Amino acid sequence: MTIYNFSAGPAVLPKAVLQQAQAELIDWHGSGMSVMEMSHRGREYMGIHAQAEADLRELLGIPSSYKVLFLQGGAHLQFSMVPLNLLRGKLSADYINTGEWSKKAIEEAKKFSYVNVAASNADRNASYVPALDSWKLDRDAAFVHYTPNETIGGVEFNWVPDVGAVPLVADMSSNIMSRAIDVSRFGLIYAGAQKNIGPAGLTIVIVREDLVGHAPSGLPAMLDYKTHADNGSMYNTPPTYGIYMAGLVFQWLKKNGGIAAMERANTAKANLLYAAIDASNGFYQCPVNKADRSRMNVAFTLKNTGTLKDANLDGDFLKQADARGLLQLKGHRSVGGMRASIYNAMPIEGVQALVGFMNEFANSKG
Ligand SMILES: *Cc1c(COP(=O)(O)O)cnc(C)c1O
Questions:
Q1: Does residue 99 have its Cβ closer than 6 Å to ligand 1?
Q2: Residue 246 belongs to what domain range?
Q3: What whole-number distance in Å separates Cα of residue 132 and Cα of residue 137?
Q4: pTM (two decimals)
Q5: Which tens digits make up the pLDDT trace of 80-120?
Q6: Which of 202, 232, 255 is the last residue of a domain?
Q7: Within-domain flag for 7
């Protein structure tokens, strides 16, 4: 049976990448050792590291005036590092609240800064992206932080906000490399790798050079972007194997048409799944405003139908999906329902299999 893994993260990786990693596991390119066992200062690993950065730069078209950092600590550490480094003597930062991850970023930033929540979708249960003309931005804010894709609620921006001269900061953990972006619109982009790039343990930061080097004195070296920028992300031992795996994913992306091809495939996959939900006569429902539905994380609920209220419908759905090899469809514990994460590495066949099952399930219960 073919298994399709719809986990929100850590998430599915391209099979071809896993196979290559397997083939190279014990003896990388005749070096006689695994990448895991190599000195991070050695010629071989340095080559892997440099290639991964070069490929990432090429794929995203990252201008040379931006630093690419390979860090650890996940997106969660960036919730702290962003305000610590980017306040630059200012007192306040603007945050856009579009869901669970925005809220976490906001709570952490409050430890270091006054936070102006310039816009929020909490009034309608985090189900939409607030229109830019409703944002109460502060011209003196140190930066504007937003979450382009809310992994839990399944809400995604399909536009990049124009916030003028104030640096724009984006937590792209769950949609980086899924669609074309103009990096020059951003002051800083960060992403945990485990959704759309590679295994957990690697965090990618893309930061405009002029925003580096303004940390307050006394900030621990590991929390200062400058430490990592000045040392090519090798101030301490980087997550070498995670970077190697990310590098394999970047090569896979290049071989498969790059970001433009991913974006086309992701659009097709998401359209297929949302169309099935919308055509189910309310058996499946997506709570997200149509224009703001995520291409990466498709959240939906099952409706109890007819007179026969079936409290176990969710459980039944998950059990039957599991039996078909459609795994990890349970929604986040904070929102319930279902969530199908369909990142770059999810083939269209996986979405087709899911849609086929969903239609059958709805018919059997309808
Ligand atoms: C998964 C996720 C996080 C948390 O990432 P960690 O690496 O666990 O810290 C933060 N923001 C978004 C948008 C996410 O999807």
A1: no
A2: 15-255
A3: 10
A4: 0.97
A5: 999 999 999 999 999 999 999 999 999 999 999 999 999 99
A6: 255
A7: no
